[in-house]
Design a protein that fits this description.
single chain; alpha/beta; ABC transporter transmembrane region fold; Rossmann fold; 2 domains; four-stranded antiparallel beta sheet; 24 helices; binds adenosine-5'-triphosphate; binds magnesium ion
Length: about 600
């Protein structure tokens, strides 16, 4: 399918209405011949011939056709406007759904600003085409043809002279279309970059302020702003060259009429009335010529936008719903990773991962930053597909599972907390909007969020911004945890969820979570030993590989990475000193950064 076929697919539904409207355009254009024709009769028969009796009838016809033209125009304008808005509504909806279908890879590769431009500026160019350009091209072509035919019937020699401008017009329009196309692509590119610059600065304004980089950002924005202006000016520079040519061609017609027509009248080859008639048709020839350049521009703008949108939505998500997908309402939560490896862009992220978690078990995952912990969970949710091996949930390969069944059974508190612009209640109930308020409170209590929510002036009705403005990092994490818990999933993933919470609160959360553990398989990713030490099984990841497994005691006995991190965090200074990391001495055990942990490993 080409971009244009895709676009016309949306227009299909409105075809009958648009054809009806084009019928009205045809009638409006056809009626346009009446007034100049009558003007000629008035000059020849009434003014020169003295036949005054027909004057009232002529005036009546002129007024009648003018009113009729206005009514027809109103009707077709309304039809085109409504059809364009309705079609755009469907198209926006479709594009939005396509965006939602896309996987993590798509969002890793596309800038938010680009995607925003697809839904705003590009859609507007398409709307303008449907609402205005389609009928304008048709109406102007029709007016031109009708006027020529009428002039032919009045005075064919004059018409032949006027027709001479046609090939020149067609040629110039073609050249303009060709030249202006890359310029419009360039404009869309710069518009996307400009959008991205604004979006990133709005989202990241706290970082900008913290680093007092306002001047730097203004300079960066000025470059984008400048780029966009230059792109627009460059396109304008191209079509500016062509506008005078069309203007010249339009004026040439007037010259032809008065020069050649004048000579014919003087020589009595043509009556003054006929000359008046032809001059009445002149605007029908002039207007299309003047409009040609502008319409060529609008058309190219539209084509560029359709191509841009199409190239974004045509990308097939790599994560696809399997054929004959297995649907399951509730899983037990038995998880098995068999020789799972994952590469991204040739880079090995996870290598030969094997483990088996039984339903209801709690799993701790620990490892240096960038070791692949989050990726492991992303693979289980099928946000990415494994490169090799298989992941089984309740014995079924997740590639055979219905995606909603799989993800519906997983409650994830992501490392990167995102809260919607909604009330706290709305955010917690996001996964189960129909649940009762009591359920929301219960989830908030387990996540140890209830108390601080109640302290807020509006309690659960407090509106939090898209990034949870006004909430502390730990508060956001606890709302995100409550949101994951309220889904009542069989598998819970807590990715660094208590990293910003003090150890005392963390213990309270762990105790509360303990009471619901039996019903869920829980994965806890953490850098703090305290977060995972009670887990049934702990996986230690390093550089994409599992280097140790076991429970807390078993891992301590192994005297490996885990044991080192434990002593590091719990302050066994002698052992740490002997592993060569003297700088950790005296450091606060629970706040040691993961890079510190890495350095311990490096010293081993
Ligand atoms: P942290 O403790 O900091 O959260 P992590 O163990 O969760 O770290 P991951 O987010 O799983 O680490 O990332 C593991 C590695 O994979 C990193 O080096 C990261 O840069 C890389 N990575 C993750 N996702 C992708 C991706 N989609 N494309 C390319 N590289 C990726
Ligand atoms: Mg992570």
């Amino acid at each position: 399918m080409t971009a244009m076929q895709w676009f016309f697919g949306f227009l299909k539904k409105y075809r009958p209405k648009l054809f009806l409207a084009l019928g009205l355009v045809t009638m409006t254009s056809a009626i346009a011949v009446v007034n100049p024709y009558i003007s000629g009769i008035i000059v020849d028969d009434v003014i020169k011939g003295g036949n005054r009796k027909i004057l009232p009838l002529m005036m009546l016809i002129m007024i009648g056709t003018t009113i009729l033209r206005s009514i027809f125009r109103y009707c077709f304008l309304l039809t085109f406007e409504r059809s364009s808005q309705n079609m755009l509504y469907t198209m926006r909806d479709y594009v939005f759904r396509r965006f939602l279908e896309q996987d993590f890879n798509f969002y890793n590769k596309n800038r938010t600003g680009d995607l925003m431009s697809r839904q705003t500026g590009d859609m507007e160019a398409i709307r303008h085409f449907v609402a205005f350009v389609i009928y304008s091209i048709y109406e102007n072509t029709l007016l031109f043809v009708i006027a020529l035919v009428m002039i032919f019937t009045v005075e064919w020699r004059l018409a032949l002279c006027m027709i001479a401008v046609l090939p020149i017009t067609a040629f110039v329009t073609y050249i303009q279309l060709k030249k202006v196309k890359p310029a419009f692509h360039n404009i869309r590119q710069h518009f996307s970059s400009l959008n991205t610059a604004v979006q990133e600065n709005v989202s990241g304004n706290r970082v900008v302020k913290a680093f007092t980089k306002e001047d730097y950002e203004i300079e960066k924005f000025a470059i984008e702003n400048d780029g966009y202006r230059e792109a627009e000016l460059k396109a304008a520079g191209i079509w500016r060259k062509y506008v005078p040519i069309f203007e010249f061609l339009a004026n040439i017609l007037t010259v032809i009429l008065y020069l050649i027509g004048g000579i014919m009248v003087i020589k009595s080859d043509m009556s003054i009335g006929k000359m008046v008639t032809v001059s009445g048709y002149l605007w029908m020839l002039n207007m299309p010529l003047r409009m040609a350049g502008w319409l060529a521009n609008d058309y190219q703008r539209f084509v560029t936008s359709v191509e841009k949108i199409y190239s974004t939505i045509v990308v097939e998500p790599t994560i696809k719903e399997p054929e004959n997908a297995v649907e399951k309402k509730r899983f037990k939560g038995d998880i098995e990773f068999n020789h799972v490896s994952y590469n991204a862009d040739e880079e090995v992220i996870l290598k030969d991962i094997n483990f088996h978690i039984k339903s209801g078990q709690t799993v701790g995952i620990i490892g240096a930053t960038g070791s692949g912990k989050s990726t492991l969970m992303n693979l289980m949710c099928r946000f990415y597909d494994v490169t090799a091996g298989e992941i089984l949930v309740d014995g079924i390969n997740i590639r055979d599972l219905d995606l909603s069944s799989l993800r519906g059974n997983i409650g994830m508190a992501m490392q990167d907390v995102f809260l919607f612009s909604d009330t706290i209640e709305g955010n917690i109930a996001y996964g189960r909007p129909t649940c009762s308020f009591e359920d929301v409170v219960e989830a908030a209590k387990i996540a140890n969020a209830h108390d601080f929510i109640m302290q807020m002036s509006d309690g659960y009705d407090t509106i939090v911004g898209e990034r949870g403005v006004g909430l502390s990092g730990g508060q956001k994490q606890r709302i995100s945890l409550a949101r994951a818990l309220l889904k009542n999933p069989s598998i819970i993933i807590l990715d660094d969820t208590t990293s910003a919470v003090d150890t005392e609160t963390e213990t309270l959360i762990q105790n509360a979570l303990g009471s619901i553990h039996a019903k869920h398989t829980v994965f806890i990713i953490a850098h703090r030993i305290s977060s995972i030490k009670d887990a049934d099984q702990i996986l230690v990841l390093d550089n994409g590989k599992i280097i140790e497994t076991g429970n807390h005691e078993e891992l301590l006995e192994q005297q490996g990475y885990y044991s080192t991190v434990f002593h590091h965090q719990y302050g066994d200074f002698d052992e740490i000193s002997s592993s060569g990391v003297s700088s950790v001495k005296g450091g606060n055990a629970s706040n040691i950064s993961s890079s510190g942990v890495s350095s311990v490993k490096g010293g081993m």
